[in-house]
C-alpha cells in the first residue's frame, strides 16, 4: 500500500502550463521530497496527487487503482498543510477525531487511535486544549496526528515546518523522520529547504519550472548532479 504513479501528468491553469507532462513513481514506504525554488510547481504537484486539483492530462495511480478522477477523500491519502488548518473552536481531541467521525468509525476505535497518535506525538497532556493554547510545534503535531489516525496509504506534506522557528524546525524534522521509520508509510514532502531535503529524503525530486531536473538519493544528487541548477540547489560544487 502506498505506491503512487504519475503517468504523463500535465497541469495548466488557463493558457499557462504549470506542469508539462511528467512521469514519476513513488515506491511504497519511500520518503520522497519535492524540492525547488518558489513557484516551480511543488504544491501544484502535491495537490494533483491529493486530488485537490484536477489533472489537465495524464493518469495518477495509487497502488493498483486508477485514482485520476477520484475525489480526495477516496484516495486514502492524508495531507498536512503549512497552515495546520485546525479548527480553532475544537479541542485537540476533537480536531484529531474529526476525520474519523466523518468516516463513521466507532467511538471505541476513535479513542484507540487518538491515544496512539497522542502518545506517538507527545500530545497526551494537551488533548483537552484548544489550538490557540498551543505552541506552533504542538499545533503542527496535532495536524500530523489528524493525518495519522486516518491510517493513510501515504502522507502528503506541503512545507509543514516553514512557519516554525529554526530550532523547532530541526526537532520536528527528526520527529517526522522517526515517524516515517515507525509507520513505514509512504511520505511525499514538499520543501524549498535543501537541508530538509538532504536530511529527510530517501529520494529527492528536483523541480524547475514544473519539470523534473533530476531524481535520486541525496548522495547521488550531491555526488553526481546532472547540471549546475541541481548542483546549486543541493549545494555541491560542479
Ligand atoms: P511552489 O509550491 O513550488 O511554490 P506552486 O505549485 O504553488 O509553486 O505554483 C506553481 C505555479 O502555478 C506558479 O506560477 C503559480 O502562480 C501557479 N498557480 C498555482 N496555483 C494556481 C491557480 N490556482 N491558478 C493559477 N495559477 C496557479
Ligand atoms: Mg508551495
Automatic annotation (TrEMBL):
One of its GO terms (cellular component) is ATP-binding cassette (ABC) transporter complex, substrate-binding subunit-containing. One of its GO terms (molecular function) is ATP binding. Residues 4-234 form the ABC transporter domain. It comes from the Bacteria. Transmembrane segments: none annotated. Coiled coil: none annotated. Keywords: ATP-binding, Nucleotide-binding, Transport. Belongs to the ABC transporter superfamily. This is Sorbitol ABC transporter ATP-binding protein /mannitol ABC transporter ATP-binding protein. It comes from Celeribacter halophilus. The chain holds residues 1 to 238 of 335 of the full protein.
Amino acid at each position: 500500500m502506498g505506491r503512487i504513479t504519475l503517468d504523463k501528468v500535465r497541469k495548466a491553469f488557463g493558457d499557462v502550463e504549470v506542469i508539462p507532462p511528467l512521469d514519476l513513481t513513488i515506491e511504497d514506504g519511500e520518503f520522497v521530497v519535492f524540492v525547488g525554488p518558489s513557484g516551480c510547481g511543488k504544491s501544484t504537484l502535491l495537490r494533483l496527487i491529493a486530488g485537490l486539483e484536477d489533472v489537465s492530462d495524464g493518469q495518477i495511480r495509487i497502488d493498483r487503482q486508477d485514482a485520476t478522477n477520484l475525489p480526495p477523500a477516496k484516495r486514502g491519502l492524508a495531507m498536512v498543510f503549512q497552515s495546520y488548518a485546525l479548527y480553532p473552536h475544537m479541542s485537540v481531541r476533537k480536531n484529531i477525531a474529526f476525520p474519523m467521525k466523518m468516516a463513521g468509525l466507532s467511538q471505541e476505535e476513535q479513542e484507540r487511535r487518538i491515544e496512539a497518535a497522542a502518545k506517538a506525538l507527545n500530545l497526551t497532556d494537551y488533548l483537552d486544549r484548544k489550538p490557540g493554547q498551543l505552541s506552533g510545534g504542538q499545533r503542527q503535531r496535532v495536524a500530523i496526528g489528524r493525518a495519522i489516525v486516518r491510517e493513510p496509504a501515504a502522507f502528503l506534506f506541503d512545507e509543514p515546518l516553514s512557519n516554525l522557528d529554526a530550532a523547532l524546525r530541526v526537532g520536528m524534522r527528526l520527529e517526522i523522520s522517526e515517524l516515517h521509520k515507525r509507520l513505514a508509510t509512504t511520505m511525499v514532502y514538499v520543501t524549498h529547504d535543501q537541508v530538509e531535503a538532504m536530511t529527510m529524503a530517501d529520494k529527492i525530486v528536483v523541480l524547475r519550472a514544473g519539470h523534473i531536473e533530476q531524481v535520486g538519493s541525496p548522495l547521488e544528487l550531491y555526488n553526481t548532479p546532472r547540471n549546475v541548477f541541481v548542483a546549486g540547489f543541493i549545494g555541491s560544487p560542479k
